[in-house]
Structures are given as C-alpha cells and as structure tokens.
Amino acid sequence: MMDSRRDFLKKAGILSSLAVSLPTLVNANTAAESFNMCGYAAPKIDKVRVAVIGLGMRGPGAVERLSFIEGCEIVALCDKHPDRVERATKIVTSKGLTAPKAYSGEDGWKSLLKEEKLDLVYICTPWDYHTPMSIAAMKAGNHVACEVPIALTIKDCWEVVKTSEATKKHCMMLENCCYDFFEMLTLNMVRQGLFGELVHAEGAYIHDLLDLNFAKNGYDNMWRLRENIKLNGNLYPTHGLGPVAQCLNINRGDKMDHLVAMSSNDFMMGEKAKVLAAKDSFFQEFVGKKYRGNMNTTLIRTAKGKTIMLQHDVTSPRPYSRLHTLSGTKGFAQKYPTENIAFGHEFITEQKLKELYDKYTPELVKYIGEQAKQVGGHGGMDFMMDWRLIDCLRNGLPLDQDVYDAASWSCIVPLSFESVEKNCKTVDVPDFTKGAWKNNTPVEITLKGGGNTPIRSRSAKKENIQLGV
C-alpha cells in the first residue's frame, strides 16, 4: 500500500511541475502578498471565451450546456483523443455556432494555453490533471472552472490557493450538487433562520459504480478504478460536503477544524477483479491489489463546535444517496430517500413542503430553474451552475464557490486517507483562508447585479428565441 502511495505522490508531483514549467503570461508569483479571493469581483467580461479540456465522461455535457448560454463563446476544445474533440465540435456546430479550434494529444492542453486568448478554462479531465491544469490556466491569465476534486494532496491544495490569490483569477470547483433544487431551498431556509442554529449536518456520495469502474470502455485507461487502489479514504467528498458547507458558512464565519475517518475493508472490488481476470487477462493487473474499503465514514468538527458526517461508498449494491441532512435547534431536513422537513417530531405534509418551495426557493432558482430543467444535466443543476458562473463573470460578480472552498472541500481526500492509515487518528484541517474566514461573508444567492445572461433556444433554427429568460 505504501509503495502505491509513493507512486501516487510522485506522479502528482510530476504533474504539478508541468504547470510550473509553462510560460507565465501574467505575474503569478505565488510568494506575493496574500489576497483574499472570497467575495472578489473580477472585471466584467462581456463575452466569455471558453476552452473545455477533457471530453470523456463529463466534458461533452459541459460543451452542450455552455453552447446554450449567450455571452459564452466556446473557442477551443481539447482531449488526449482526437476523435473525442471531433465529436464535441459537432455539438457546437450543430447549433449554428462557429467551430472551436481543436487540440489533442497528451500535451495538447499546454499548446492550447500558449496559443489561445481565453477568459475561462473549463477542466473535465481525470483527477490527477486537475491541479496542474488549473495552476497553468491561471498563470496564463484565465479564470478556472474545474471538476471535483481540485487537488489530491494538501500541498496541491495550497498551490492552487496561492496561485489564485497571486493571479487574482477565480478558481471555482464545479460542485454541481450545490445547485440542486432541495439543497438550494434548504440553504435559503437556513439563511432565513427556519432551522435555528445548525448543530449537525450530513453529506455523502453513495453510488454503486462497481460495474462502471471495472468497465473496459468506461473511464479512460481505467483511471477511476486505479484511484480506488491509491487511497483508502473518502475519494469523492465534495458532492455531500459542498451543499452542507455552504449551509454552515464554512470559510465564511466558521471553518472545519479537525476530522477522524474510518473505512471498512474491501469486500467486493478485489473479488470482482479476480472474477473478471478468470475470463479476461486484461483484468489480471488489478488482481491482488489492496482496494479502498466499501464504506468510509469521516467525522468533522468545526471551529464553532458544529459537526459534519461524510460517507463514501461506490461499491455496495444500494440506492443512490447524498444524504444532505441538516439538524438545527428549530428544525431538520433530509433529502434521501425522500425530501423531508420537520420542525418537531414529525415530518411536514407534502402540501406544506410545496408551500415552503413556493416561499423559500431562492431567486436564482426561480429565475433559471425551469430553463435549467429543459437544458438538463443531472436534472438541471449542472446547467444552473454553468449559467450562474457565466452570468457572474459577465457582470463582474463574486462566484458562489471560491478557491478556498475548492481546497477545503477537496482536502478531505488526503486527510481522510491519513486518518484511516493511522488507525482513525484525529487530523487537523488546514485553514486555507489564513484566518479570513472570521470576516468573510456568506455566499450570495440572489441575482443582485446580474441575471441578464440570455439562453439560446434548443433549436439551431430559432437562434433568437429565448427559453423565457
């Protein structure tokens, strides 16, 4: 296990060095005086020029969604495999839009950053590339939106933070679950005091990916299965953590202080590898590996004495769940298995829940929610995230998720591994805000100063027809 960890850390270090070696087009001296990116409003960008890197699992959907947003121009696409770039290009041109410039090959992304004039780099690659690509993109003068997690080591979390501060470029992790409808409802209810003082929250990523992780034509070079060998901890914390962290005002009035983590043994992945290898020699290299345990449970305590429970299980055959549980001094909310809210010992009726939706759904969701459902992406939350990002950049507004969120939500990956490896030892959570959390203000969920970014029609023949925005 220790050998695989050393190989992983060595690889991460090599990849990070790639970002440093790229030409610096703006002054990105990470030793510069710290600048607080929380609440930072970058200069307005009327037309956001975007490059999407990584066109495997998540990238094509991002291209599709971004192509619906006016004021967003997809100028370049990149993937290691040229056929993926070709397919994604057709998504853009099928809507009557100009074909983006194509980049491919292992180093295509580096050529893209050198040659293209961009505003935003949208990263959808395997996890190992997130940190070096994000750092290089910011140093090249671009804002960054990156799929989760932003980094896999504490060192890389700090490097991403320092680079964002030095360049004054946004680095937003694309935690789409923050934009799900029940999560947004409960966030606003928390802000309105309906739950009283939050005491405890729970989040999770419980999703049976066993067959997909072992699928030969799934993740490129079986990269996600390999991640389940590298680290025995919570490999995917942000889907559950992001929404509850916003409810608890983490990095904006409170901070995560320390954690403990425990993992079960692996009861399925090792056996799955043996069964598959008996029929197909392709899987032989995965036999005998020490896989991450089925279930990881991580407990976090905040500086103000709140607690968070996170769970991660992508192996066991059980229904999907992100938990999203909030427990306060006046009320309780829980998303899975069904959406429920209580202000006492019993859940409210379905009619009362509807009334809460009508009254407390945030302005952002009321404005864009139905259009987001039409465009799609996990029921609309992906598109709401993308539209909100572009609208904030176009209007010079702070982003809903900043680089400190990216780092603190992602750092649970290595910290949970460290705690598990040391027999559930308590591990401190770094303060990536360097004390600024005490005065940082909560995320804004209104449309104040923005909300003026239109959406293109789903039909290329009706380019001027908006979807009711």
Comma- or semicolon-separated keywords:
Dihydrodipicolinate Reductase, domain 2, globular, Rossmann fold, 8-stranded mixed sheet
Q: If you had to describe this structure to a student in words, what would you say it looks like?
A:
InterPro entries: Gfo/Idh/MocA-like_OxRdtase_N, Gfo/Idh/MocA_oxidrdct_glycsds, Glyco_hydro_109_C, NAD(P)-bd_dom_sf, TAT_signal. Its cofactor is NAD(+). Residues 184-341 form the Glycosyl hydrolase 109 C-terminal domain. There is one protein chain. By secondary structure, the protein is α/β, with parallel strands linked by helices. It folds into two domains: 48-173, NAD(P)-binding Rossmann-like Domain (Rossmann fold, 3-Layer(aba) Sandwich); 177-365 and 403-438, Dihydrodipicolinate Reductase, domain 2 (2-Layer Sandwich), CATH 3.30.360.10. 36% of the residues lie in helices and 15% in strands. The protein has helices at residues 2-21, 59-66, 82-93, 108-115, 130-139, 154-167, 181-191, 210-213, 223-230, 238-247, 269-277, 350-360, 363-375, 381-395, 403-410, 412-421, and strands spanning 48-53, 72-79, 101-104, 120-123, 143-146, 171-173, 198-206, 256-263, 296-302, 307-313, 325-328, 332-334, 340-342, 427-428.
